[in-house]
Amino acid sequence: MTVRFATSSDGTELAYEQFGEGPPVVLTGGALATRTAGVPLAGELAALGLSGVVYDRRGRGDSGDTEPYAPAQEGADLAAVAEALGGGAAEAEVFAFGMSSGGLVVLEAAARTGVALSRLVLFEPPFTGAAGQLQDPVRVARLTELIGQEDRSEAVAYFLAEIIGLPPQAVEGARRSPGWDDMKKIAHTLSYDTTLLGDATLPTDTLAAVRVPTLVLSSDASTPVLQEAARATAEALPYGEHRTLPGAFHQVPPEDLAPVVRDFLTG
Questions:
Q1: For the whole prediction, is pTM greater than 0.90?
Q2: What are 83-139's pLDDT values in tens digits?
Q3: Domains annotated on the chain, with CATH
Q4: Using CA atoms, how far apart are residues 182 and 60, in angstroms rounded to an integer?
């Protein structure tokens, strides 16, 4: 596919690719993900008559970066990609999908930037404070320290173990996986995701400002905390609804997820 670039409001260049010819769905990835992580879902959406658009969030893949980091700027980044696809035109229809912390970016764009997003789908936005599990500032400080020391491997391992809560065997499996080196390359962006999340409580002002229909999804194999976060997010949105799908921890197979996304966006 052809890699194109959109320019964000601060001049940062954002790499994106489009799969399919239908109405575009901008897919925003979560922590430790580049645009390639969204390609399977983008392809499934393209086969269903939409076009899946994947992009590298700032500091990742082929996209640029501009300091200092600000959560609002990530919303502006998504808006820039949407506008490059025609989302600034009144007759255009652009949708957005956010995976995990990518859902926070989608909410920021929809609430604050004025970009024309018709409908949204969020998969397990990690507002775990809705279930009483706040983001620990001590762990965030330790992660920031590891990133500052350029200890990328330990930063990724610490994030997976102490912030995500994966068991030791899962972390060791990740270390041995082919994708470990790719995760290390973007380890510095983990501080972006923790900043974006804040203390993990629901951002009620942001949610109240999202005035378009929004589907919040969760997997039946995810932790109760993540499932409760999804339900609470949907309840706090003016036009939100929640649905649980069969899947694995923090994921649903793209071939199962795509029809649900398509039906909601085009319904």
A1: yes
A2: 999 754 444 689 999 999 999 999 999 999 988 899 999 999 999 998 889 999 999
A3: 4-132+200-266 (3.40.50.1820), 137-193 (no CATH)
A4: 10
